[in-house]
Design brief:
Strand 5 and strand 6 form a beta hairpin. It is globular and about 60 Å long. By secondary structure, it is of the alpha+beta class. The chain is 41% helix and 26% strand. It is built from eleven helices and 13 strands.
């Protein structure tokens, strides 16, 4: 295979393994500037070497349970001694540091599920996490035994289809069959996980957790538009690097920030801390959120 074709193959593989977005055939064709027929040929190539190709609602992607992901993971192999040192090192770092969490997530995406679970969770919950990871990889239903709900104050068993873990695996997004909805379950509140023989039946109802530029996660997103001074713009880029490409310059001391967030909490804290440097352009819901925060302030 010549270099241009190899580069395109690697590029389409990157797009089809993107965890944050899924693409249609037409979108892949436009991004790579090649014909739709060529896209299909590349997809045939992936399938011929063993990749599992998923298709849903016009989108197409490479499934993480494909055996090639495990093969790639072997490139990041650790001996028991190395794994122990890595585990102790990561645990000694500030858990609130986004860079540390980023390392954990990358290890989870590449390395053996069970070993990474031992790194990012404590010993008491590692068995729960490992079983759920197996269920996600094999698309199986599980029973969350003796789940303690803080909302209903009831301990009960839940039959679910696990979809995705949150940051640091402290919670897991599942489709709950009895309530016909996607819910987040706290891992420490799960007594035990029982893996069933039943495969997913409601994949078309699954939702994905989104994470915004302020490191807040959720199932929905809300628009926010701000006018910033140079001071606010610089601080925003320094404190939240993912916001940088959402900022555009209007003049020497005026900048526009426009993005969607999963929660008003993160961006709200930033705005309230620099209220004299920021003008809110959108949205009304965000303004109402800030007004409630001000009314409840103790200062």
């Amino acid at each position: 295979m010549d270099q241009p074709k190899l580069e395109r193959l690697l590029r389409i593989m990157q797009l089809m393994t993107d965890q944050k977005r899924r693409y249609s055939i037409e979108e892949l064709s436009q991004i790579l500037e090649i014909s739709i027929r060529s896209i299909y040929r590349y997809i045939d190539t992936f399938e011929s070497v063993g990749f599992i190709v998923r298709r849903f609602q016009g989108k197409i992607w490479l499934a993480r349970e494909s055996k090639q992901f495990r093969t790639i993971a072997e490139l990041v192999y650790f001996t028991e001694e190395e794994a122990y040192i890595l585990k102790r090192t990561i645990e000694s770092l500030d858990a609130s540091n986004p860079a540390v969490n980023g390392i954990k997530r990358k290890l989870y995406s590449l390395y053996d599920f069970g070993k990474v679970a031992d790194i990012v969770v404590n010993e008491k919950t590692s068995k729960v996490v490992n079983t759920i990871l197996d269920a996600i990889a094999n698309e199986k239903q599980v029973i969350l035994k003796s789940y303690s709900s803080s909302h209903s104050a009831i301990v009960s068993d839940r039959l679910v289809e696990p979809v995705q873990f949150g940051v640091n695996m402290v919670d897991v997004l599942c489709y709950e069959i009895t309530s016909d909805s996607c819910k987040t379950f706290k891992v420490p509140r799960i007594g035990e996980v029982v893996l069933t023989e039943s495969s997913w039946q409601f994949a078309h109802k699954h939702k994905r957790i989104l994470t915004d530029s302020f490191r807040f996660s959720g199932l929905e997103s809300f628009p926010v538009k701000l006018k910033l001074t140079m001071v606010a713009s610089n601080l925003l880029k320094e404190e939240f690097p993912l916001c940088e490409d959402k900022i555009s310059k209007i003049s020497d001391n005026e900048y526009l920030f426009e993005d969607s967030v999963c929660s008003f909490e993160g961006v709200g804290r930033f705005v309230l801390g620099l209220c004299n440097e920021i003008e809110i352009l959108e949205s009304k819901d965000f303004i109402d959120f800030l007004n409630k925060k001000r009314m409840g302030s103790r200062f």
